[in-house]
Design a protein that fits this description.
- By secondary structure, this protein is of the alpha+beta class.
- It has 3 domains: about 110 residues, no CATH class; about 40 residues, no CATH class; about 90 residues, Chitinase A, domain 3, CATH 3.10.50.
- It contains 10 helices and 6 strands; from the N terminus they run H-E-E-H-H-H-H-H-E-H-H-H-E-E-E-H.
- Strands 3, 4, 5 and 6 form a 4-stranded antiparallel sheet that branches.
- A hairpin with a 2-residue loop joins strand 1 and strand 2.
Length: about 270
């Protein structure tokens, strides 16, 4: 019954890939020194740094010397194959040429994003303002509840009838619920309304503490019988605990706005 509102749209996913790559690219830029020459082509240390950190997923300074030499050998093999005379013909293949162009454009786009982020650093004032907005928009209450999830409305009606005659909610949940919380008597962790699918949240809000739904509640998961056990004020998390998330969100929004402007400027008139 948890909400899926956090699923990102394709455009947002693409944006986050660009931003993640930009951050990694900015962190990897170092002064280059030649380390090998293959078929007349020089491999420099900046290429090794990017390759090593991409393969190992950690800074090159944290990679053991033995592992670093293994990566150097791998990189040399890449250059041996890609600089071989017969590789020139492969570059003429339309599919390979398209892949090379896409990779080049992705790298340039990441560098562009990295420069934008460096030139538009998120300030403490912006973080504080966004925290205030999020805190004001947060639901005022949290709820503790149990629920019983069953496949059909009829089963849910039968369970409500049993509750009306004094059956224990937790016992019925353990025996009858198809949800993962069945093993805990249907108990759910504290939640805010924006963390649940709307029909479930709407039903909980109108209940009183200690009361269960008099009619089944349908969601995409099935039919629910819900017991609202407790409610409490929803205190926002401390700013410091979510500072980095807010900072990243602001940076993403800034870049998205800039990208929207660039799209509009690049649009071809009909």
């Amino acid at each position: 019954m948890y909400s899926n509102n956090g699923s990102a749209a394709a455009g947002t996913r693409s944006l986050m890939i660009i931003l993640s790559g930009a951050i990694a690219l900015a962190a990897s830029l170092v002064a280059a020194e030649p380390i090998a020459t293959i078929n007349g082509t020089t491999i420099d240390s900046s290429v090794l740094t990017v390759y090593a950190e991409s393969r190992a997923q950690r800074p090159i300074s944290e990679i053991a010397e033995e592992d670093k030499q293994t990566l150097v050998r791998e990189l040399v093999d890449l250059y041996v194959l890609s600089t071989h005379p017969s590789a020139a013909d492969l570059r003429e293949d339309p599919k390979i040429a398209a892949q090379i162009e896409l990779q080049e454009r992705a790298i340039v786009a990441q560098a562009f994003a990295a420069k934008f982020l460096a030139d538009n650093v998120t300030t403490d004032e912006e973080i504080a303002a966004e925290y205030a907005i999020q805190s004001a928009a947060a639901p005022s209450l949290q709820f503790k509840a149990r629920h019983i999830l069953v496949p059909t409305q009829g089963e849910a009606i039968d369970l409500i009838a049993k509750l009306d005659t004094g059956s224990d909610f937790a016992t019925l949940a353990t025996e009858s619920s198809t949800g993962p919380s069945a093993k805990d008597g249907g108990s759910l962790p504290w939640f805010s309304t924006n963390q649940m699918v709307k029909p479930f949240s709407d039903a909980v809000v109108v209940l009183e503490d200690g009361k269960y739904t008099s009619a089944p509640v349908q969601t995409e998961f099935g039919w629910h019988v819900i017991l609202r056990e407790e409610s409490r004020s929803n205190e926002p998390p401390p700013l410091e605990s979510i500072r980095e998330n807010i900072k990243q969100s602001i940076a993403q929004n800034k870049f998205q706005a800039h990208l929207d402007v660039l799209r509009a400027e690049a649009a071809t008139p009909e």
